[in-house]
Design a protein that fits this description.
Helices cover 35% and strands 14% of the residues. The chain has helices spanning 3-11, 119-131, 140-158, 164-179, 218-246, and strands at 38-44, 55-58, 63-64, 75-81, 90-91, 96-97, 106-116. Strands 2-1-7-4-5 form a five-stranded mixed sheet, with no helix packed on it. Strands 3-6 form a two-stranded antiparallel ribbon. Helix 3 packs antiparallel against helix 4. Residues 5-11, 194-216 and 218-222 have low confidence and may be disordered.
Length: 247
């Protein structure tokens, strides 16, 4: 590089000096030039399914994370974490981030975080509360199964560590118990199930050994009536005949 070129490089910020030739004299001001590192973010489904391509990032440039495309049956997506178990740094879906990796061409993996989806089970339990079922309306066995299934459903809802499988099982068992509830009596007291007699009021019907009250058949009544009318007519005729003979 000539001395003239070196002098121009010291005053022209747009010119890049790549080499200083031997024997060059004079003062030279050089300013360091920087290029932001590139890095990538990898996304792990952490038990889910689907695909989400790595995201290319530039250091010092804030960028929103890619929208989650992973799904997991029975679970709700909560966000991302730098640790699979969720013990690292957390990020929400599409959160703006920057400078997750400092080294050039480095990378970081974010793991999807999942929460068991209990909404269907919770809705069914709340619906049963509103129904306010009366155990006196159902058979003992079916009510017992229903109570056990309902208690298990409430236990799963209260358990933060309950898995999707446990939640699904509790939901199906409660649905089955509800479907199998056997009515003991209708609103008017008629028995349609099986239960102890002391628990219900049965309708009274004559037993097989009770003699039913008898009533004459309709035809018999009609026949007797006609006979009486006939006798009256004959009697009247005879009385008239005797009267005329006496004259």
């Amino acid at each position: 590089m000539s001395e003239d070129t070196a002098q121009r490089a010291g005053t022209d910020p747009g010119e890049i000096v790549q080499e200083i030739q031997s024997g060059t004299t004079g003062n030279l001001m050089l300013s360091a030039q920087w290029e932001a590192n590139q890095y990538s973010i990898n996304f792990d489904s952490n038990g889910g399914s689907g695909e989400l391509a790595p995201q290319q990032m530039t250091y010092d440039l804030a960028t929103n994370l890619s929208e989650n495309k992973f799904t997991r049956s029975g679970y709700t997506f909560l966000g991302w974490n730098t640790q699979a178990a969720g013990t690292g740094t957390s990020y929400s879906d599409k959160q703006e981030v920057e400078n997750l990796v400092a080294e050039s061409n480095g990378s970081i993996t974010l793991f999807a975080q999942w929460e068991t989806n209990k909404s269907a089970l919770e809705d069914l339990v709340n619906k049963e509360k509103e129904n306010q079922r009366d155990k006196e309306d159902y058979t003992e066995e079916s009510w017992k199964n229903y109570e056990e299934a309902l208690a298990q459903a409430k236990k799963v809802l209260a358990d933060d560590q309950a898995t999707a499988e446990q939640t699904a099982t509790a939901l199906e068992e409660l649905k089955t118990a509800i479907a199998n509830l056997e009515l003991l009596k209708t609103s008017d007291g008629q028995i349609i199930g099986t239960a102890n007699d002391s628990a219900t009021t049965r309708k009274s019907y004559p037993s097989a050994g009770t003699k039913a009250k008898s009533f004459p058949q309709t035809g018999m009544i009609a026949g007797s009536g006609l006979m009486i009318v006939g006798i009256a007519v004959v009697g009247a005729a005879l009385a008239g005949w005797k009267k005329r003979k006496g004259k």
